[in-house]
Amino acid sequence: MKRSFSLVDVLLVLAFCGHIAWTVKASSQCKQALSREIRPHSVAITEFGAVGDGVTLNTKAFQNAIFYLNSFSDKGGAKLFVPAGRWLTGSFDLISHLTLWLDKDAVILGSNNPDDWPVVDPLPSYGRGVELPGGRHRSLIYGRNLTDVIITGDNGTIDGQGSVWWNWFQRKTLDYTRPHLVELMNSTGVVISNLTFLNSPFWTIHPVYCSHVIVQNVTILAPLDSPNTDGINPDSSNDVCIEDCYISTGDDLIAIKSGWDEYGISFARPSTNIIIRRLIGHNRNGSGIAIGSEMSGGVSEVYAENLYFFYSSTAITIKTARGRGGYVRNIYILNVTLVGVDTAIRFDSTFSPHPDDFYDPNALPVIERITIKDVIGNNIKVAGLLKGIEGDTFHHVCLLNIALTITSGSPWNCSHIQGYSAMVSPETCEPLKESIYPNHSSDCYHLSNHLRSSVGILILAISQAQQQPHHQ
To answer: Which positions, given as ranges, span the membrane (predicted)?
Structure first.
């Protein structure tokens, strides 16, 4: 169905883009990506026999180049330069103290032969492949136990050529879980910047068990009907910064995860200290920002601001279920602009695929201290579908300064949820109607008394004025 843009839509887009132009200049809490950092040693992939014709398989060239550069890892590191061309390859490993640099017209192409994507063990926090029992295909660009890794360039491209994998998935002919485009495991000091990522077979960028990760100024694209082509999935990782990205895929733009049911509970590696800023994108079958559904190791301290999602299924989602265990707490999301989104906020407690029959159905997730503020939206079908779990109420959900133009007759649907609100239009559901101010700001994450916004102070003043006796 063709969509038409109203004047209000256009004004919202212009206003948001103007806001981005200002905020990009503002100081950032995230360290800037040192994408042009000079490594003392540098080689080009062509020096190892690579041919950039889009036909010749260059896996050995990448492997040999990185093997050679490993000798410089203790001498300040090295850079592997990929010049203009179309460089077909299978999966290859990175090393510590390496910069993988793609020139402006360089394209790394993933092979269409599944044998060029080796099968590796499942992640211990998942216990099996996400899609199928057993192992999983290794990502195109892979690394584990690394320090100081930079994947960057002059907006070069990494193209997974995922359509063959999507077809195998839809026909149910896969033997193992599909590969990611980039996966780094147990690594620290990771920078991914100034690149375009296309057509991942599965999730696109997957830092798992990592710390100190920066993803900046990347574009991630896949067809809107491509299955499970998430953009960026921090997984059991801490101190992650995602800034200035445009993502348009077939599933979640960003999905924060931390393991699956009993395996995630046992592995006990949470995702924490995640910052997301200046994200623009859309999808048809996922969310702008999702937490879960695999969140059994816990997710906390997530700060997201300056988000713009258009013509998407859902803007903000927490996905969980009985048997997940774990927790999602201390989440702060603000300055969100929405156009043509089906559901603005969704808590889905029935997202119940389990890895096997050994999960504990009595392992209930703890969902608490979720604050969402300063949201505007036009042409929104539903403001919120907020569903907790019977016997496991989601606590201290706080909504502040939200104004949505709703096209359906039932803007809110809430159950097994408790919290507060202020300045929400259309009026929120009964479990959230109690006002944040003056008594509950300390119950709302990041809205404690000493951090009260001017809006909150104004509401308090109005409330006090209304309680004064009126004189004729």
So the answer is: none
